[in-house]
């Protein structure tokens, strides 16, 4: 099969699988949001540190702002809370579907559409999902680091604040970095050197 035709077939497979994974199946979005919130609590919440974080569902995600955001992150500086735990807090909102599921689904669609033996696909999925989760956590970490300035957990000079703002914009971009990272991880965990040799 000519290279162009093989590439076209692969691209169509990716589109079909990605469409199936990203489709708004009933209950999938809130289910993933709960998973995302649990992952955030497991990795970022430290009961003994200065930073207080709570990952929770937004009360009304259909009318949240920005629209359809499903996760609220309540941040506070424990040094500024009184004995009753009252004090200044800041609410961050996030879209778990965009930050987490979209790049995950894209990575999975690339692997599942790749014409290699299923055993290798499953191995690539396993290792790749570990790396994809690492990227998602890095994205959330950048978000939290930059927004920590709002409750005096981090102090940044104007230069570094501009850098932090730019990093957050890039990390939270709905298309660019997440899809690029997913594609890079797919290439690293899926292909072997012999796969890259030209085939007739």
**What is the terminal-to-terminal distance?**
8 Å
The helix tally amounts to 6
* Mean pLDDT metric: 88
- Basic shape: elongated
Radius of gyration: 20 Å
Order of helices and strands: HHEEEHHHH
**Structural domain tally:** 1
**Helical percent range?**
55-70%
- Ranges where pLDDT stays below 50 over 5 or more residues in a row are none
- SSE class: mainly alpha
Beta-strand content bin? 5-15%
Strand order of the largest sheet: 1-2-3
Largest sheet: 3 strands, antiparallel
Query: How many beta strands in the DSSP annotation?
Result: 3
Structure at a glance:
With 200 residues, the protein is mainly α. It contains six helices and three strands, in the order ααβββαααα.
Describe the 3D structure.
The protein has 200 residues and is mostly helical. The chain has one domain (3-44, 96-196). The chain is built from six helices and three strands, in the order ααβββαααα. The chain starts with a helix and ends in a 10-residue tail after the last helix. The relative contact order is 0.12. The mean pLDDT is 88.
List keywords for this structure.
single chain, 200 residues, mainly alpha, three-stranded antiparallel β-sheet, 6 helices, 57% helix, elongated
